[in-house]
Structure formats: structure tokens, C-alpha cells
User: What shape does this take?
Amino acid sequence: MRLRPTGSSLVLAGSLCFSLFNAACADTLFKQATLFDGTGKKPFVADVLVKDGRISQIAASISDAGNAEVIDANGKAMLPGFFDIHVHWTPGGEPPSIPAIAEQYVIHGVTTVTDFHSAPESYAPKRAWLANLSAPHVAFAARMSTPGGHGAMWADNHTTYKISTAEDAAVAMKTLAPYKPDLIKLFADGWRYGRKEENTSMDELTMKGMADAAHPLGLPVVAHVVTVDRAKKAAGAGVDVLVHAVQDGDADEELVQAMLSANMTYSPSLAVYEVTEAKKAYYDEEALAMADNRQKHSMYNLKLFSEAGIPVATGTDAGMPKTPHGSSTHREMELLVAGGLTPEQALVAATRNSAAALNLLEDRGTLEAGKRADLVIIDGMPWESISDTRKVEQVWIDGELKARNNTLVTPQPEGLPPAVKATALIDDFESSSGRTALNTVYINHRDTGVGHSRSLSQRVPKEDGSGYAYFMQAALSNKEEPEASVRMHFTPGAVVPVDASAYNGITLSVRGEGEYFVSLTTGSGECETSFSATPAWQTVQLPFSAFCDGKLDSAQLLMLETGKHGKAGDSVWMSMDDISFY
Assistant: This one.
């Protein structure tokens, strides 16, 4: 056995557990750590043996550990890895990329998170990408809203499914099942905090239909709910977790009993609502007063629910403005304590309760033999002072040391995954599969907002009988810059880029009326150009040099989009065929 200490003097030489690609780790024996195991026990000193990425044994003293590497953890705290069950991995946010977001969670000891921001087509390629990064475990949430509902304002129907009935919910779940989502998120409450127009809300029957469809597949159902009335409906529908604070008023006993009867968990996401100095620029005096009043209700309801025995979990809504990834999880625990929980209760919220909320408690969330070795070693006693959670010295995921002293052990690869070679044909619309020649979906896109343009597109026979084309028509919204378009990803989910540098540009056959745009998206952003169309078919060639003033990176292409910027209330149409690189 080899001995090495924790902390800044940690020695890395000879360890087998630092492969970027999660190779099998050497067995590790942690000696005399002070364990907060998340089960409700008081902290205790013990040895912890990790084998094959899982906790093998916990005992007062372990002397027979074979060839395990020994780490002296005397005087250090060991906790289960923290959870954040409410995260948006927003592209272009702070930080702006998946590798950078993953790094922030790992260095802060957050080893399991959700992603409420991804389309199902992207789950598989993102899972493969994350497996090659230093990253937390990520549970992907399938998004459900109502037409005109919150969460549907910006997202296409492949990202946010729109459901209005229990039958819609059943069909959506059947469509989603092959993508293997890890949970379902319902944008169920349309109240916009008293400051904006209210969105539509999801009725109880639709929520219940979704719960009835998801639960047999072992999928928890969480809901964006922020009002007392909608929380009662969510509890009656069998929703498992509320992932926002109830904040339009103080909860009553009826709601408490409904949540208890439904075995519901409460994750108030206090961090996103806290008006920090960084957020004050977004608020005027009236808005500040309203935000303060809402947070008072949030704190009252947190204490009420917790004292009634409703489990509390940690979720932050990180990825929203000025709610940073990673560090916000620690702030959430501090706010839970400010709201009436003890530091021990806040730690259980961030570990055991959050694992249970995601149906993962048999696998992780507590320090127990047989469970996944997701471990955080802290130089402090966070069960006495909750801010000590920030004193993270080591983070282990699946028994592998990933970070020490706020730095990844292995530097994170930057940018996108490696590009694959582009093939010439994007689509000729001859297949009836409903997918492009690249095996990707067609996505109807439009301007954002509750009131937005509406489009319909489909594969149709060509007038001369020469095959099929793609037809789109749209009614543009009544706003200044409405638009409607069709998007085609070059790989499923537009996660892995294609290298089209062997080609000169894009060509397509098209008919329509007026000016249309074509946009190409890379890892650095969008590049757009335009062309004119007439009702007669014509072939258009758009060289890469026409995009971004000739600065388009054609070796990192993610998506093609074509459509029309129009005027408020316009009706527009276009047909296209034989789209390819040339």
C-alpha cells in the first residue's frame, strides 16, 4: 500500500485513476476521514475502501485492503458528491460551452446534475461527449409545455413537446421513450411573477396523464410550479418534484397535506431568485420590491414544508442569467439554511434527498457500501457551518480523482467534439422516413415569444412528377422582426460538427417569392447570407465565402437553416429540393 495525504501536498505520481477516458481505477483506501454519509447519522470517523469505482467497505478501521492506494484523510470531511437537480446547460451562457460547464460542476464537488435544456435528438451524442470529459453525471430531462406556455416561447417542438391533454402526454411519452430520457420536466405554471403577461398553464388532467405515462418507465416527473394553486394541482396529478419556489403567497395546510399525500419533494431554487448585486442591474425599484416579497414567501414556504416532513432537494436553475454553474449549488445550500434548515438538513438535501428525487438513491447520494464512489473531501465541518462546503479539496467521481483544490486533475478539452467528414448530400427528400439523408430531423423554427409565427412543413410530390420536395408555409407573427424557417442538423442533435472544408459551399433547388436567408451554424455562432427566389424552380449556389465575410469555419459546421424574415402578419412559403455541399 502507498500513502499519500490530502490537500495541497497531494502526490499524483503512480496513480492509475487519472485517465481522461475513465479507465478502470486503482482501489483506494481513505484512512480516518470524518464521514457525513447523508443517511441522517451524525458525522463519524471511519476508513472507506473503494473498489472498481464503488464503495466496497466502510469501517472504523480497515487493515486488509490488498494493493489499494492509501490516502490519509485524517481531519478531513468526506461527503457524498453534491447534486443540482435544476440546471440549464445553456449554449452561449456563462461559461459558454459544455466542457467549461462540466468543469465548474466538478471542481465545486457537484457530481450529479440535470440538463433541462436539450432536445432528445442530442441526448446520445451529448452522453458520448460527456463520457470523454471530466464531467458530472448528467440526467437529461424531456421538456413538456402547453401551447403558449412557459418553456415553449423559444423552443421548437423537438426541444419542448407541447401537450394539452392526457392523450397528448401518452403520445409524447411514446415518441420520447426511444431517446431514453432520465426524467420529465413539465412547464406547468404560466404565472410570470406579476411582471409580464401570464403564459398558459397545464391542467391537472394533462399533468396526471404525463405522470401516468412516465412512472411505469421509472421516470420521475418534475414541474415548474411557482404558485400555491398550481402546486395543489401538481400534487393531485402525481408530480414527484416541484423545481421552483412557491412564491405567490404563503402556502396553506391544504397544500402541505396534498404534497405529503403525493410523497412530493420540494426543490425551491432559491439561488436563481436571490437578488444579488450582479442582478440588480436588471431590476427597477418596483421590480426589486416584488422580488423581495416573492423571496419572503419562498422562505416561509420552505420552512413550512420542511417542518411538515416534506423532503427538500437542491436545485438552482443555474444557466439562467447571473446564476453560475457549480458555485450556485453551494449558495443554494446556504440559502436553505437561511430559510430555516439546519446545516445537516441542507447537506441531506444536496445528497440523499436529491438522489431520491431522481430515482437514483440505490446507486448514489449516500456513503454506503455498494454505492457509486462519488466523493467530496472538504477541509472543514459543513454540518456545523454550511459555507464550509466551499472548501473542496478533492472530488472523486466513480472512484477516480477528478479535481483537487478547484483545479481539474486532467485539463479539459476545449471546443466541440472532433468533427466527422461531411458527405455531399444533405437531403433530396426522396426518403419517406421523416429524416434527412444525414439521419437528422427537420425542425420548424420561428421567432421567440408567447405570440410567435406558426409554420407547417412537409415532404410533398413535385408538380412534374420527378420526385419529392420539401414545402414550408407560415403565418408570421405580429411583431417587428418575425421569421419562419426549417433547420437541418448535420449530425443528430447538432452536437458533433462536420468538416465540409473539402467543399466550396451549399447548393439547393428552390422556388418561392422574394428574399430568403440561409444560415450556417458553427461552434462560434451563426453566419447568414441571402438569395432571391421566384415561383419557378431554380438552382442556387451559395459559396462559403458568402457567409461571415468569408470567415466561415467550414470545418466545424453544425446546422443549416433556411427561411424568410418577413413583415408582421405576412404569409410566406417556399419549396426546396436537392440540398447538398458542392
About this structure: The chain is about 20% helix and 30% strand. The first helix runs from residue 98 to 107. The CA atoms of residues 111 and 136 lie 4 Å apart. The mean pLDDT is 93.
